[in-house]
Amino acid sequence: MLNPPSLFGSAPHPAYLGTFHPGQPVTVLGAGFSGLWMAYRLQQSGYQVQVLEPSSRVGGLIQTQKRPHGPVETAAHSLLVTPAVARCFDDLGVPLVGVHPSSRARFFVKNGTLTRWPLGLKASFRTLFGLGRTFNDSRSDIALSEWCDQTLGPDATRELLAPFTTGVFACHPSELDLDLAFPMLRPQQGQTLWAHFRMRKKQNSAPRGIMMAPRDGMQSLLDALADRMKPVITTGVDVRDLTPHLIAARGEKSNVVLTQPAHVLGGQWSNLTDPNLRADFEPLGLDLSQIKYSGLVTVTVFFKHSAFKQPPRGVGVLIKRGESYRTLGVLFNSSAFPNRVYAEEWVSTTWMFGGTQDPSALTLSDADLHHLITTESQRLLGAKPGTSPVAFHITRWPHAIPVYNAHLKHTLVRARAVLERNPGILWFNNATGKVALRGMIEGLS
Ligand SMILES: Cc1cc2nc3c(=O)[nH]c(=O)nc-3n(C[C@H](O)[C@H](O)[C@H](O)COP(=O)(O)OP(=O)(O)OC[C@H]3O[C@@H](n4cnc5c(N)ncnc54)[C@H](O)[C@@H]3O)c2cc1C
User: Fold this and answer.
1) How far is the CA of 217 from the centre of ligand 1 (A)?
2) pTM of the full predicted structure?
3) Which residue CA neighbors atom 51 of ligand 1 most closely?
4) SS (H, E, C) 128-146
5) Which of 23, 43, 266, 283 would disulfide-bridge 288, Cβ 3.0–4.6 Å?
6) CB 178: neighbour CB atoms within 10 A?
7) How many domains does the chain contain in total?
């Protein structure tokens, strides 16, 4: 039987909140990755599980669409593979592929052009010296950008960190809470960053993980989970009122795991029909409703090989705001991974727009996006003038990624307290500590 506390590990921000009534049946609400993974892990541990999903398909944000020129990912496309992640994929029989050895380069943009390292000599030295600077900020709420300004310096914040957080969280580092988004980066008071990293390396000998992707697309991970859980998944069931599930959990007869997006859950916790439950959950419902999400538009674009003198080679490029591009970054799908095009003559790329710094990108029409990509691909990737891509596949996510800011951190603290008073009610998804699949997998491993 699953030993609930062991799932929390000792991480300051565990992957899920709440405690189980050991041995009692579990209803998981939501069949995105977090719902399916939680259900699968519980079933493996001997729990009787059912999964209820309002939509007609499982997978939530993640889907691999088979299009004429190649597969198109609507959300996660790759992940960092650590031993726990490798075990998960092995166990589910989902093959992984690594980045092509000659395509490992990651690019930034400096003054309009691609570069492997955007800092000049002086700024590079300033950043390097930052490793030896003592960290003396004892505040509990520190933005990631403040941490970087104080340690590595503002050049590193602007040129390295900002494009990186745009790529992962679709927001600026000033919006991210250091302890929630990157708890491993905070040195102790009076410690240098260099000493901090050395100490962490000594304490944590686990490999850092390598970037890989499921050979047949991310959907194959979801399909494998759904296949194992098929008899207990019901789609097309929209549980609008959580009251019966929460009351059953209070009666110690069952457990409920809430994996729906935080903004949906917030509305549901503010809407309970039972007055006792309302007293406990309603204030939290408001907190949840105020969790900020970045919106994203992703466009997978297929070009003909002949559109380039030399097609882009590498993993992709991240672009800081202030450069003369609207796109946040481009993934070079067919250069990085095998099986991303159905014929050698095609080149597959994925373009990202929006994020918290450009919310109006969500309102760009298909024609606007076509025009933007056609012109930016010429300047950024050297596509030949007069050529245009052969196919565009657009996905718009108004609530793509929760912003890991101080509000979310404080909401998690309050939610943990409420859920500790209410065993049998659990919350697990990409807002409860880990936004990437690697963290969610490790959090229940
Ligand atoms: C564009 C993009 C690119 C990304 N790239 C990567 C990447 O490369 N690597 C990586 O590791 N991560 C990546 N991510 C993050 C990752 O894809 C997500 O964090 C993850 O898929 C979220 O899973 P989830 O189950 O928490 O949420 P969701 O996928 O949103 O699933 C929530 C589920 O709850 C259901 N639901 C909604 N309302 C209710 C209700 N009332 N009751 C019950 N269920 C309900 C929904 O229908 C859905 O099925 C990316 C995300 C985006 C948007």
Assistant:
1) 16
2) 0.95
3) 75
4) HHHCCCECCCCCCCCEHHH
5) 266
6) 24
7) 2
Quick check: is 241 in a domain? yes
Clarify whether residues 346 and 381 are in a common domain. Answer: yes
* Confidence band, pLDDT 50/70/90 cuts, at residue 12: very low
67-106 per-position pLDDT tens digit? 999 999 999 999 999 999 999 999 999 999 999 999 999 9
- The CATH number that applies at residue 236 is 3.50.50.60
pLDDT digits (tens, 9 = 90+) for 25-43: 999 999 999 999 999 999 9
Counting every residue written for the chain, the total comes to 445
Q: How far is the CA of 128 from the centre of ligand 1 (A)?
A: 37
Q: How far is the CA of 241 from the centre of ligand 1 (A)?
A: 21
Whether residue 362 sits in one domain with residue 339: yes
Judge if 285 and 418 occupy the same domain. Answer: yes
Ligand 1 proximal residues by C-beta, below 6 Å: 29-35, 53-55, 60-62, 75-79, 238-239, 259-261, 264, 296, 298, 397, 400-401, 429-430, 435-438
Shared domain check, 379 and 434: no
Strand partners, 73: 64
CA of 376 to the centre of ligand 1 (A): 29
Q: Write down the number of H helices and E strands in the chain.
A: 17, 17
Give yes or no: residues 326 and 398 share one domain: yes
Same domain, 10 and 68: no
Of 89, 430, 435, 442, which is best to mutate to test ligand 1, by the most ligand atoms within 8 angstroms of its C-beta? 430
pLDDT tens across 274-328, in order? 999 999 999 999 999 999 999 999 999 999 999 999 999 999 999 999 999 999 9
What is the tens place of the pLDDT at every residue in 206-249? Answer: 677 899 999 999 999 999 999 999 999 999 999 989 999 999 99
Reduced to 3 states (helix: H, G, I; strand: E, B; else coil), residue 101 is helix
- CATH code for the domain of 366: 3.90.660.20
Does residue 262 share a domain with residue 232? yes
**Quick one: which atom of ligand 1 is closest to the CA of 260?**
34
Q: What is the mean pLDDT of the chain?
A: 94
Q: What is the C-alpha to C-alpha distance for residues 385 and 127, in angstroms, rounded to an integer?
A: 38
What is the whole-number distance in angstroms between the Cα of residue 387 and the centre of ligand 1? 35
Distance between CA atoms of residues 25 and 30, nearest Å: 16
